[in-house]
Amino acid sequence: MSESYEDGVCGDGAPDFIPPRAIRSGRRSGLGVPLVERDEAALLESVKAAPRRSSIIKDPSVAKVSGGRKKTVSFSSMPSEKKVSSAADCLAFMQGGCELKKVRPNSRIYSRFYTLDPELACLRWEPSKKDGDRARLDISAIREVRTGKSTETFLHNGPSDHLAEEAAFSIIHGDEYQSLDLVALSADVANIWVTGLRYLLSHPGSIGGGSGGDGGVGEGSIGNKMRQNWLVAEFALVDEDGHGFVSEDTAVATICKLCPGIREAKVRLRFKEIQRSKEKLTSHVTLEEFQEAYCELCTRPDVYFLLVQLSKDRECLDAQDLRLFLETEQGLPLATTEGCLELLRRFEPSTAGRERGLLGLDGFTRYLQSAECQLLDPEHQNVCQDMKMPLSHYFISASYRSYLLDDQVHGRADLGGLIRALQAGCRCLEFGVTDGPEGEPLLGVDHGTDGKHHHHHHHQHHHHHHGSVTLRSALEVVNKYAFLTSQYPLLLYLCQRCSPSQQRTLAQHLKKVFGPKLYTPESLPVSLGGRATTLPSPEQLKGKVLLVGKKLPPEEEGSEGEVSEEDEEIGGGGPLAGRRMTIPGEEELGVVLVVPPPPQPRRLRLRRELSDLVAVARIGSRNFYAHRTSAQPSQQHSPLSTPSTPGTPMTLDPPYWTLCSLGEGEAGRLASESPEELVNFTKRNLTRVRPSSVRLDSSNPNPQGYWKGGVQLVALNQQTPGAMLDLTRGRFMQNGGCGYVLRPAVMREEVSYFSAQSQGCVPGVPPQTLRVKVISAHSLPKPQGSGAKGEVIDPYVVLELHGVPADCTEQRTRTAAQNQDDPLFDETFEFQVNMPELALLRFVVLDDDYIGDDFIGQYTIAFECLQPGYRNVPLLGLAGDPLPHGSLFVHIAITNRRGGGKAQRRGLSVRRGARRGREYVTLRNTGIKVLDDTFRPASGPLREATDLREDALSATVAFKEQCGLPPMATLKQCIQSLATRLQSPDGTPCATLTLKEGYPCLEPVGNLTDATRKLLNGYDTIISSNKQLIENADGVHERIAQVQKEGMVFHEDLARLGEKENLKGRKQSKAVESFAWNITVLKGQCDLLRSAKLDALDTLRQLALACEVSGLILTSDGHYTPHGLSSRRGSSHGNGRI
After folding, report:
1. Which among 100, 444, 869, 1093 has the fewest CB atoms less than 10 Å away?
2. What pLDDT is recorded for position 704?
3. What is the Cα–Cα distance from 546 to 493, expressed in whole angstroms?
C-alpha cells in the first residue's frame, strides 16, 4: 500500500514537472556528477606522519608515480580512510604534497604539485619555469587565506566558472595583496590546505620548525589537550581498578555512550584492527588505544574544519568566538556573551572546558547536532501566524478516510487511523457513514460520492462482511483527541447514505458526544455567521467542531426533505464533460480517462435534525462554474462576486458558509487552465479536493498542484506513506503544527494578481536565492526494503524544490561510494525561488547500491521555516518516524529576502551589474483610457525605486567582493577584513570612523596602498548609496502609493468603464486582470521600498558598530549612536513615515 517515492513533483491536471528520478531504471549513476578517483583516495593509507597519539594520517611522504610526480588524495570516498582531527594532521599532509590547479588572470589553468617544506617556512611547487629558490612562497609573506572563489581572478575568469566553489581557495600575499588562486581535486583537500595555512599564520612560532609555544604543533593545541584530558577522565571512570586497561566490551560501551549514534559493530571492528596491528594476544584496551579509537571514529572532519576556521586554530571556541559565529553564520544578531557562556556550559563535556569557558571539538559537535541548530525555525514550533482572518485565508490539513486500513474497496475500518491523523494535526476528517444493524450507523467505505450508484443494501452488506466500527465509537475517539494537538476548529466532512431513521440516530450521537463543542449556525452570535460578509476565523472557532454536509434548502419547512447528491468526482457536471483527462501525477502511468456526461443528480432524503447540525453546506463543482459565469465583469461590479443567502444549495454564487468539493482531476485542470479564476474563487470560498476514485490503492495526489491554485483543503490518505504525504507534513509543520497555515497575501487580498501557472517572478513578491550546501550525512541506516548484503551503502542526496512551476526543480549530490553511514559531500546547490510562501524543500537520501528499495530517509520543510547557517536536518523514515540519530549537516543561505520580517538574518542580494542591464518592473495596459492615464505617472517613481534599492545592494555586494568575501558574508566580517588591512606596523589604524551629517564615514590617515584605498572607496560607495536610499525613499514611496490610491477609486466601476470602451468577453476579462496586476505591482513596490529603507538604516548601524568593535575609533565621545540618523533629519527620515 506504500505510495511510490517516484511520483511527479509538481503534477496537476497537466503535470508541469516530472523529475529525472521519476523512472529509476538506468539511473544508478544519478545525474552524472563526477566522482573523485578511487586510486587517488587509496593512497591515503601510505601517507605517514610523525608519531603522535592523535595522528590519523600515517605518512607525509606520498608514493611516487610515473615521472617522479606525486598524486593527491581524497578524504571522502573510501570507508577505510582515516579522518583529519588536528592541525598537525593537516601540516603532515601538506608536507607530503598534492596536485592543485593554479588559475591565472589570463584564463589559463595549470596543474602544479605543491608541498610545504619540512621547516614549515614556505610553499614550493613544480614544475615551474623559475629555478627552485624562486618557485616558492614564504609563509611570512602570506596576508590571509580565503575560501571559495572570491578574488578578482576567480570572479572575472570565464573558465573558473566550471571549477568547484568548495574546492577553491586563494592565498593573499605581499604588500600589494596579490593572490595565488588554487583549486584542489576535492573540498576535503582544500580544507586541509586552508586549515594548515591559517594555523601557520596564527602560530608564527611554528614557522622554521619551532613548537609555536602554547598550542604549538608539537605540544598540541589548547582544544586538543582539553580533549585528551577529558578522555583520560572518562577512561578512569570505567577503569575502576586503576590497572590502565579495560575490557573491550567496556571500551566499546564507553565510546558508544560518549558518541551517540555510532554503531557498536564499527567501534568493535576498530579495536580488533588495533589488536591485530599490535599482534596482541589479549582483547584488553589501554588508555592510548581508547583515545586513538575515539579520535578516529568520533571526529567529524566537517566539524573540525569549521571549528579551526572559527577558533584561530586553537581548536576550541571561547564565548566571543561563539558569539561571532552566531551573529555572522547563524543569523542571530542579538546573541549575547552571557548566552554564549550558557551554551558552552551546556554542551562542553570536559570539566576543564566548562571552567575556562571554552568549547572543544566534541562540545561543538554536540551543539551542532542539538535542537539549537535544527533547520526548522523555532518561531514555527508554536503558532506564530495571524489566526484572526477568515477560514478561507488558510491552508487546512485534511484527511481522507484515514480510518481505512487497506485499499478503498476492501478497506477495514480502524480507529487508530483517526487517532494518528488528529495527532498529526489534521483539522478536517472525512466520514463515510452507512446504515448498520440494530439501528446503529456504521463507519466505513461510502461509494456514493464516487459516482458508482450502488444500491444502498449493497453497502450495508459490504460493511458487515468486513467487520464494522460504529459511528458512535468513532465520534467518541474524535472527541477525545480532537483538540490535544491543536485548539483550532475541526471540520467533520460527512458523506452519509443512511436511512432517515438512522440519520436521526446520527444527529443524536453528534449532539451527545460533542455537546457544546459542536458548532451550529445558531450556537454563536450572528456576527460569526448568517449573512456576515466573511467566514469566521480559526481564533473565533477555537475548540469547536464544525459539521460539513448536505443541508436542506431554506424553503423546505418539513421534518424531512430532498437534496441533490452531486457527483464530486471527475467531470462534476462542468464544461469538461466528454473530454479526455489525465489524472494528476499519473501521466507516466498512462491513466487517461474520458469524462462521461454528467448524470442527473440523485435525490436523497435528508432529515431536518441532521441538516440543522450542518454548519458548512457541502456543494459540488457546478457551483464553481456558476460562480465563474456570474463573475463575468459585465454582470457585476468587481472581479469578485457578491454573496447570496447562506444555506441555498444551488445559487449562481455560493454563500460563504459552504465548502465546494472538487474532484482531483477537475481541480487539477482548473489549476492549469483557469488559475486566476480558481484563486479568486478561493479568496472567499472554502474549496476541497479529494483523491480520485481510480486510486483504489489509497495512493495520494500531489497536493502542491492544488495549493498553488489556492485550494484550502487537499484531503490525503494519511495512512499511505510516500512523497505526497511528506509534502503535506512539511507544509503543516509550520505555524506550530496547528493544522492551519496562512495563505500568501496575493491569495487573500481582494485586488491582487496571482497565477498558479506563473513561469517567472510573481508581481509584488520579491524572488529569493536559496543556497544549500550539503556537507555530510550521519548514522544512515540501510534502506528498509533493501536486499543487499553487508552494511556498506552508496548514499547520495536529492534536493527537490516544490512550488509554482517556475520553482519546481531537482538537484543531487554525487554518490559517496562505499562510504558506509557517515559520508562527506561538501556540495553547494542554488535555487531561484519566485514564490517563497508556496515553496517546499525536500531532502531525500537514497542508496545507489540498492537492490529493491533505495529509500533511506527524507525531510521536507517549508521555505519560510528555513533557518540560515549551519543546520542539522533530522531524517525521517518512510512512515514519517525519525531515524535514530540519522541526519544531514547542511549550510543554508537565503539572499535578497525583502519584506519578510527577517531581513537582518538573511544577507543581501547577489545580483550585480550596471543600471543599463537592470530589469525594471512595468505596469500593464488595461485598454481603458482613464485607467491607463491614472497608472502612467507611476512609471517614473517605479524606476527610481528600483534604482535606489539596487544601487544599495550592488554597492554592498561589490564591497564584499573587494574584501574577498562571498555574497552571504555579513558586514561585520567585511569590516574585520578591512580593519586588518588598515592596520599600520605600529598597530594604529590607517583610518578612523567619523560622523558626517550623521553617516558613519571612514577618514584615511597617512599613506595608503592602492589596494587599501580601493577598499575604502568601496566602503564610501555603500555609505553614499544607502544615504540616497534613506533620504529619497519617502518621496518615491508617496508618489507610488498615490497612484495606487487613485487606481483603487475605479475598482468598483470596472464593468461600466469597460462597457464604455466597448470591451467585451475576453478583452473585458483581460482589462480586469491587468488592473489587478497593476495594483499588485504598486503595492508590492511600496512594500519593497519600505523594507529597503529599514535595511539601509540597519546597514549603517551594523557598519558603525563593526568599525567600533574592530578598533577604528571615531568621534569625540568615542561612540556611534544610530539615533544620529533619525534625530538629524526629523520624522521624515530614519524612523519616519515608511
Report:
1. 869
2. 93
3. 9
- Residue 854: how many other CB atoms lie within 10 Å: 26
Provide the terminal-to-terminal Cα distance of the chain, rounded to the nearest Å. Answer: 55
Fold match between 222-373 and 768-905? no
20 prior amide bond cis, ω within 30: no
519 neighbors 489 (Cβ within 8 angstroms): yes
- Residues 911-965: pLDDT tens digits? 334 566 678 888 999 999 999 999 999 999 999 999 999 999 899 988 988 888 8
CA distance 1067 to 1060: 13
pLDDT tens digits for range 648-666: 333 334 444 889 999 888 8
Residue 46 is predicted with a pLDDT of: 31
CB 254 within 8 A of CB 236: no
Inter-CA distances, 210 with 120, 139, 595, Å: 9, 14, 83
Where are the strands (E) in 1085-1138, listed by range?
none
* % of the chain beyond a pLDDT of 70: 75
SS3 string of 550-603?
A: CCCCCCCCCCEEEEEECCCCCCCCCCCCCCEEECCCCHHHCCEEECCCCCCCEE
Q: Residue ranges of the domains in the chain?
A: 39-206, 222-373, 391-565+605-747, 768-905, 915-1132
Taking alpha carbons only, the member of 352, 422, 389, 685 closest to residue 536 is: 389
pLDDT value at 41 more than 70: no
Mean pLDDT for all residues in the chain: 79
Instruction: Return the CATH fold of 39-206.
Output: PH-domain like (2.30.29)
Q: What is the Cα 938 distance to its own chain's centre?
A: 35
Residues 143-157 as b/e (b if ≥16 CB within 10 A, e otherwise) read bbbbbbbbbebbeeb
Q: How many CA atoms lie within 13 A of 495 on its CB side?
A: 23
Query: What residues does 1138 pair with on adjacent strands?
Result: none
Helix (H, G, I), strand (E, B) or coil at 821: coil
Non-local (6+) Cβ contacts of 925 within 8 A are: 932, 1074
**Cα separation values, 480 from 483, 541, 586, Å:** 8, 18, 38
Angle of the 187-202 helix axis to the 301-310 helix axis, nearest 10: 30
212/110 Cα distance (integer angstroms): 34
Split at pLDDT 50, 70, 90, the class of 594 is very low
Q: Helix axis angle, 1010-1048 relative to 971-981, nearest 10°?
A: 160
Task: For residue 662, list its beta bridge partners.
Answer: 689
Euclidean distance between CA atoms 115 and 100, whole angstroms: 10
pTM: 0.81
d(CA 673, CA 582): 13
Burial 1039-1074 (b: 16+ CB within 10 A, else e): bbbebbeebbebbeebbebbeebebeeeebbbbbbb
Q: What is the pLDDT of residues 883-897, one digit of tens each?
A: 999 999 999 999 864
The residue behind cell 525519525 is 882
The three cell numbers of residue 884 are 535514530
Third-level CATH fold of 391-565+605-747:
TIM Barrel (3.20.20)
* pLDDT higher than 50, residue 809: yes
Q: What tens digit of pLDDT does each residue of 100-158 get?
A: 999 988 878 889 999 999 989 999 998 876 666 778 899 999 988 988 888 888 887 76
CATH number for 768-905 (one of 3.40.50.620, 1.20.1260.10, 2.60.40.150, 3.40.50.300): it is: 2.60.40.150
Hey, what's the cell of 290? Answer: 581508547
CATH number of 222-373: 1.10.238.10
For residue 9, the Cα-to-chain-centroid distance in whole angstroms is 16
Query: What CA–CA distances, in Å, run from 754 to 710, 749, 837?
Result: 10, 10, 13
